[in-house]
Amino acid sequence: MMNFLFEERACSALYLQQILQDYHPTRSQMLADMFAMGCLLHYQGERSAASMLIGQVFDAVRNIEEREYLSTLMDSISGNELRLACEIAPSMELRELCDRARQGPSREAACAR
């Protein structure tokens, strides 16, 4: 596993990507895609669906050492959704969705759907 200082990883999905590759090598792409989709849904205002997807990814890697990181990452999602979605290295299809969301008109956030 790569070594990251907490400050370097606090608001970055790169460390989560490494965790997924280390702990779930056969499912890391699927979990990365779930995280990216959760970030995209969060960006679009679909907070309930986003929390469910991101929570499932976090449940797959939750352990004592990573709780603080995962909590900090979750707290930093607002305003960083598209950057985090791309940092996790999702499949090309999800990256394209994020690119389209970046280019589209800004959307009003839904109220905790």
Describe the structure.
- The chain is mainly alpha-helical and 113 residues long.
- Helix 3 runs antiparallel to helix 6.
- The protein has helices at 6-9, 14-23, 28-43, 47-61, 67-75, 81-87, 92-103.
- Residues 1-6 have low confidence and may be disordered.
- The protein has one domain (8-102).
Jot down its keywords:
113 residues
Taken in chain order, the helices and strands follow as HHHHHHH
Q: What percent of residues are in strands? A: under 5%
By secondary-structure content and strand pairing, the structural class works out as: mainly alpha
Low-confidence stretches at least 5 residues in length (pLDDT < 50)? 1-6
What is the domain tally?
A: 1
Can you count the beta strands? 0
Radius of gyration: 13 Å
Please state the average pLDDT score. 86
Compute the separation of the termini in Å: 37 Å
Number of helices: 7
Oligomer: single chain
3D shape: globular
Short description:
It is built from 7 helices and no strands. The protein is an all-alpha fold and 113 residues long. It has one domain.
